[in-house]
Write a structure and sequence with these properties.
There is one protein chain. The chain is of the alpha/beta class. It has a domain of 198 residues. It is built from 13 helices and 11 strands. The strands form 3 sheets. Strands 3-2-1-4-8 form a 5-stranded mixed beta sheet.
Length: 344
């Protein structure tokens, strides 16, 4: 029997006037991280849909999570599209409205109708090559890797890099996992798989025999495979902490992230170990970063995934932003030229 594999994509339209009005209203009383740069829209969602349909033709359905706004180009009546509004997703609608992706992710265990095996990705993740199911799932388990770090992102990290709510959220996830799982239960297959490099194996040896707790885990910034049952188990165990994060309308230091679910399946050996090297994160700080990144992508035939990470730290004008968007969309149009069936 062929398993069903759904895709889940959260999306926001920062140009929606109702959304803007709500955001401005709540920003006035908020002291956390509400930076506007989090809400730039490079209009890559259309190409995410194209890339899934073209390069993952085995997909079952695409779940689009939205405040309620829908892209003008999207066919709402497509048989393989499920539009989920925040009101349908949230366990507690008193936590709405939200402007915090981590808050949304705490409510994913309430995503009704989702397949047991599914893939979570952001609206800036593009799948650029044909992908087989077993890149994401083997024997009904998510393909993933466990690679421990050498240094905790703690006080020293803050002194060097400054305050970072995202890093704090990851540390919060690790703390919860350490409270619920014992390192000695990690299997040798999970820790020392043949696809791991020697550095990974040494760091994992130190994890099991010296640290004996998680201090940092390496990530891949790719489409992330999950089991829906793992999400529900994490929710059952960490419901109080996840509810606190769900209330946060903007990023705060007591946030968690979707990686609480990933850490769960890693710590419980509920994954198929294999460390791929087929993804690339293009950090778009300015036009020069983008053009160099596109040149790199064209030379790397082995890449399966690219995240066009909108950082925009060096952007000085709307004109420059528009030029970046035009350059990016022209590139995507060349590699994903065919319209998907989701487009009107």
């Amino acid at each position: 029997m062929t398993i069903k594999i759904d895709f889940v994509i959260p999306w926001v339209d920062p140009n929606d006037p109702d959304w803007q009005a709500d955001k401005n209203k709540y920003m006035r009383s908020h002291a956390g991280d509400s930076s506007n740069k989090r809400f730039n829209d490079l209009e890559t969602l259309r190409y995410v849909f194209r890339s899934i349909e073209k390069n993952c033709p085995w997909y079952n359905k695409i779940f689009l999570i939205t405040r309620g706004h829908i892209p003008q180009w999207l066919r709402k009546d497509h048989p393989n599209l499920v539009i989920i509004k925040h009101e349908e997703l949230y366990f507690n609608n008193n936590h709405l409205p939200t402007f915090n992706s981590s808050s949304i992710e705490m409510n994913l265990p309430n995503l009704r109708g989702l397949s047991e095996q599914f893939i979570y990705l952001n609206d800036d993740f593009i799948i650029i090559n044909q992908i087989k199911r077993d890149r994401f799932f083997v024997n009904c388990k998510p393909v993933d890797f466990l690679s421990h770090g050498w240094v905790k992102r703690g006080i020293l990290f803050k002194l060097c890099k400054g305050h970072n709510t995202w890093v704090n959220a990851l540390n919060n996830c690790l703390k919860l996992i350490n409270n619920d799982f014992k390192i000695k239960h990690l299997s040798n297959q999970s820790l020392y798989h043949s696809s791991y490099g020697i550095k990974n194996k040494v760091s994992n040896f130190m994890l099991k025999n010296i640290y004996k707790q998680f201090i940092w885990l390496e990530h891949w910034h790719n489409p992330q495979p999950y089991l829906f049952s793992s999400l529900q188990k994490a929710k059952d165990t960490f419901s109080t902490e996840m509810s606190i994060c769900s209330k946060n309308k903007f990023r705060k230091d007591n946030d968690l992230t979707q990686y609480i679910y990933r850490y769960w399946h890693l710590a419980s050996n509920s994954f198929h170990p294999y460390k791929h090297n087929d993804g690339y994160v293009l950090k778009i700080k300015n036009l020069n970063y983008l053009t160099k990144g596109i040149s790199y992508i064209k030379k790397r035939n082995s890449l399966n995934f690219v995240c066009f990470n909108d950082q925009m730290t060096d952007i000085t004008s709307d004109k420059e932003f528009d030029l970046i968007k035009t350059t990016l969309l022209n590139f995507l149009d060349n590699i994903l030229i065919e319209r998907s069936s989701f487009e009107k």
